[in-house]
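User: Could you go from structure to sequence for me? I need the amino acid at each position, not a summary. C-alpha cells:
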C-alpha cells in the first residue's frame, strides 16, 4: 500500500515537465491524481495513460489559466470526477519573456502575474472548501526569489515571489484545520520549458552553479513534493524548501 493510498490530489500544469513528474510520483505513492492541463490534450492524455499503465489512477481536467473564470472552470471540471481533495499542488507557470527591466512590457508582466500569481491564488481560494482537514497545499516557486540574481528573469521571479507570501500567510490561517502549506523552490530544471537554451557553454555554466555540478531533473522536484504530501511532513508548514542542488545554499 502506498503512502498516499486513499488520497485525491490535483496537480496544475501536469501534462509535461515538472508537473507530469509530480503527478506520476503522487500516483505511484497511491493517490488518485487530477492531471490539469491548459490546452495540450495529447500530452495530458499521455500522462494519464502512463500513470494507469503503471497501475495508478488519474483523470485529466482542462482549464486555461490566466483568463477570467479560470479557477471556476478548473474546479468545475474537477468536481465532475471527485467529491473532495487531499493534496493541492500549484505547479502551473510560465517563464514569459526573458528580459531585463528596460525591455519589460506591461502586457508581458501582466500575463506573468495572471498565470503565475493570480491563478494559484484563486485556485487555492476556491479549493479550500474542497480540501479536507489534514490536507496539503504545495506550491512550486523558484530559487530566483531569494537566490542567484538573474536580471533577465526579473518579471518571472517577481510573479513567483508573491507565492512565498501566500504560503506563509495560509500556513497560519489553515493550521487549525491541520492543513500544511509549503513551497518548493527549484533551481534550473532540465525540462522542455528551457528547450534550446540548455546547451554548450550555457549548460556548463548553469551546471557549475550547483554544488552537485548538474541541472535538476523533474524527478528531483517530484520527490520533495511527495515528501510534503506525505504524513512524514506533518509538522512542516509555512516553509520554503530549496531544491536547487545547492545553487543558492
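Assistant: Here is the amino acid at each position, in order:
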Amino acid at each position: 500500500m502506498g503512502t498516499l493510498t486513499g488520497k485525491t490530489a490535483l496537480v496544475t500544469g501536469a501534462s509535461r515537465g515538472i508537473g507530469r513528474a509530480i503527478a506520476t510520483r503522487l500516483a505511484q505513492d497511491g493517490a488518485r491524481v487530477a492531471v490539469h492541463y491548459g490546452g495540450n490534450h495529447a500530452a495530458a492524455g499521455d500522462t494519464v495513460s502512463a500513470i494507469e499503465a503503471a497501475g495508478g489512477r488519474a483523470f485529466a481536467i482542462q482549464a486555461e489559466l490566466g483568463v477570467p473564470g479560470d479557477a471556476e472552470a478548473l474546479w468545475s471540471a474537477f468536481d465532475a470526477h471527485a467529491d473532495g481533495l487531499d493534496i493541492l499542488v500549484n505547479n502551473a507557470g510560465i517563464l514569459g519573456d526573458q528580459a531585463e527591466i528596460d525591455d519589460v512590457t506591461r502586457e508581458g508582466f501582466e500575463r506573468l502575474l495572471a498565470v503565475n500569481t493570480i491563478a494559484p491564488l484563486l485556485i487555492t481560494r476556491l479549493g479550500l472548501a474542497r480540501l479536507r482537514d489534514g490536507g496539503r497545499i504545495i506550491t512550486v516557486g523558484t530559487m530566483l526569489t531569494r537566490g542567484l540574481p538573474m536580471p533577465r528573469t526579473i518579471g518571472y521571479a517577481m510573479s513567483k515571489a508573491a507565492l512565498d507570501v501566500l504560503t506563509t500567510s495560509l500556513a497560519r490561517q489553515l493550521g487549525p484545520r491541520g492543513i500544511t502549506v509549503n513551497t518548493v523552490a527549484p533551481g534550473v530544471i532540465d525540462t522542455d520549458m528551457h528547450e534550446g537554451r540548455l546547451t554548450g557553454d550555457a549548460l556548463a555554466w548553469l551546471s557549475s552553479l550547483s554544488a552537485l555540478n548538474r541541472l535538476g531533473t523533474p524527478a528531483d522536484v517530484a520527490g520533495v513534493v511527495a515528501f510534503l504530501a506525505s504524513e512524514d511532513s506533518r509538522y512542516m508548514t509555512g516553509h520554503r524548501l530549496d531544491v536547487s542542488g545547492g545553487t543558492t545554499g
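One structural detail worth keeping in mind: The mean pLDDT is 92.
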